[in-house]
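Project outcomes to date are best conveyed with an example. Our students and postdoctoral researchers have been running inverse folding experiments weekly, and each run begins with a structure described purely in tokens. The record below, which covers 371 residues, was selected by the lab manager from last quarter's runs and is presented without edits.
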């Protein structure tokens, strides 16, 4: 990874530099209550009040940087889409609620879906979209998948439960919603807008079965935390050969595994700009964190947590932080750490820590699809 594109920030209380559009800019890291804030970001600082500035900088400066977003504002340079899987059981048969929109560019039946609007949280938007497109009130439950296209398009799919029986809403978009037997969907394939609905349905079934068998102490929801840019946090795990021991890669400042419950600045983190696609960022960072990381760490297919808050409307902190699961491939030894002064491996044994990181055997994790 070339220094022009990615630069490792040093430990707290040092002045360092990072690369933005090929130019090196000074950033001062200042310890604040065990966290790190940044000074010198004048392009954004003038637009924020002191309270917003303090809230935006409660995390450690990113370890790696590939570009930088001057601002992130919903529908200006980033798009969030929400979709919902709403199931019910009637006469012993599982049914799913689908919508047919009377628009030429939205043919066929599909899940209730729509854009998140500025000022709405992700999960509030799900309820708004379902009500608007079906007439049903709903309870928003777990996030079951996240799709990423490029670096500025994200789709969240949630499990939901209808909580009311309302007439169909045909006032604004002339919608048509109906319950269909899940077992009959394949016969309706020609009338379905996109075949990805079958993959989503399978993921929802798997998610529901694992959540039933494993108590969900930490629900899969979107953390309502404003993000000034685009970030990826890496949960790089390594099992021993018989899978009786699991370790995770953390900053050396992490004294013990319990701090994974108390701090949010322990995992390797990258900030990136819109010019870099999500999969490219992941691949480059793998190689920067571990020697041969590109070949020894699995392509991520699951996430641990998502943080995002596209509110208030006038905010420029509508960005996103995705914590991805990055398993080390089975091997007798671990790949050497590139920066051994920065990272170390710690063993995880505490059930609460394992549960928060969604690493317990049988515990469900939302799927990640990098399109």
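After processing, the design step wrote out the following sequence:
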């Amino acid at each position: 990874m070339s220094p022009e594109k990615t630069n490792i920030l040093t430990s707290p209380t040092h002045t360092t530099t990072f690369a933005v559009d090929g130019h090196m800019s000074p950033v001062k890291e200042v310890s604040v209550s065990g966290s790190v804030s940044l000074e010198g970001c004048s392009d954004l600082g003038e637009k924020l009040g002191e309270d917003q500035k303090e809230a935006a900088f409660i995390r450690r400066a990113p370890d790696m940087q590939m570009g930088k977003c001057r601002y992130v504002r919903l529908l200006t340079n980033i798009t969030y889409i929400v979709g919902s899987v709403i199931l019910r059981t009637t006469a012993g048969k599982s049914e799913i609620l689908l919508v047919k929109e009377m628009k030429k560019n939205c043919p066929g039946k599909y899940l209730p879906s729509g854009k998140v609007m500025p000022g709405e949280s992700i999960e509030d938007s799900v309820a708004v979209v379902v009500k608007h497109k079906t007439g049903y009130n709903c309870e928003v439950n777990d996030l079951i998948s996240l799709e990423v296209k490029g670096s500025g398009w994200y789709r969240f799919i949630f499990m939901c439960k209808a909580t009311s029986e309302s007439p169909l809403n045909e006032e604004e978009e002339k919608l048509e919603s109906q319950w269909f037997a899940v077992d009959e969907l394949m016969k309706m394939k020609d009338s379905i807008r996109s075949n990805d609905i079958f993959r989503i349905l399978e993921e929802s079934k798997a998610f529901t079965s694992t959540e039933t068998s494993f108590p969900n102490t930490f629900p899969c929801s979107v953390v309502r935390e404003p993000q000034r840019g685009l970030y990826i946090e890496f949960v790089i795990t390594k099992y021993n050969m018989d899978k009786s021991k699991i370790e995770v890669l953390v900053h050396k400042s992490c004294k013990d595994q319990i701090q994974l419950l108390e701090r949010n600045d322990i995992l390797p983190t990258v900030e990136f700009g819109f010019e870099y696609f999500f999969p490219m960022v992941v691949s480059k960072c793998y190689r920067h964190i571990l020697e041969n990381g590109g070949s020894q760490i699995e392509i991520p297919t699951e996430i641990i947590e998502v943080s995002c808050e596209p509110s208030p409307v006038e905010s420029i902190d509508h960005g996103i932080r995705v914590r991805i699961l990055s398993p080390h491939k089975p091997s007798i030894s671990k790949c050497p750490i590139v920066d051994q002064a920065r990272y170390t491996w710690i063993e995880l044994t505490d059930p609460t820590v394992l549960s928060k990181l969604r690493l317990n055997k049988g515990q469900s994790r939302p799927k990640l699809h990098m399109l």
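The chain has eight helices and 19 strands. The longest strand covers residues 227-239. The training component of this project remains on track.
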